[in-house]
Design goal:
Layout: H1 3-13, H2 16-25, E1 30-31, H3 32-36, H4 43-55, E2 59-64, E3 67-72, H5 75-85, H6 88-113
Antiparallel strand pairs: 1-3, 2-3
Helix pairs in contact: 1-4, 1-5
Length: 120
C-alpha cells in the first residue's frame, strides 16, 4: 500500500461517524438505510460518508433491485494493521518499563509498611 493510500485510509477512519458505520458492518452486509438508522444526520450526509469509505477501499457497495447494500472490505484495514505493527515494540518497551516501575513501587511500599514506627 502506498503512503497516499494509507493517508486516504487514515483520513477516512478519522471521522467517528465513519468508524461507527464500519463497526455496524462488522456484523454483515447492510443497506444504506440500515446504516443510517442510528445517526441523526441526513441521507445525503450518510451517502457522503459512504463515498469517503468507498474511495478509501474500506467498503464495497452493490445494487440489489432498488437497494444499495454495503459490506466491509478488510484490505485497507490489514494494511493499517501492518503499518502500526512496526511501532509495536515502542509500546511494548514502554509497558515493560511501566511494569518494572510498578513492581519497584509496590516492593518499596511493602517494605515501608512492614517497619515499626520510630520512637522519639
Amino acid at each position: 500500500m502506498s503512503t497516499d493510500q494509507l493517508s486516504t485510509t487514515f483520513a477516512a477512519l478519522a471521522d467517528p461517524t465513519r468508524r461507527a458505520i464500519l463497526a455496524r458492518l462488522l456484523s454483515g452486509e447492510r443497506s444504506v438505510s440500515e446504516l443510517a438508522e442510528p445517526f441523526n444526520i441526513s441521507m445525503p450526509a450518510v451517502s457522503k460518508h459512504l463515498r469517503v469509505l468507498e474511495r478509501a477501499g474500506l467498503i464495497a457497495r452493490r445494487k440489489e433491485a432498488q437497494w444499495r447494500r454495503c459490506r466491509i472490505a478488510a484490505g485497507p484495514l490489514k494494511e493499517v494493521a501492518n503499518w502500526t505493527e512496526h511501532y509495536r515494540h515502542i509500546w511494548e518497551e514502554r509497558l515493560d518499563r511501566l511494569d518494572q516501575y510498578l513492581q519497584h513501587v509496590t516492593t518499596k511500599e511493602e517494605k515501608s509498611h512492614g517497619r515499626k514506627p520510630r520512637g522519639k
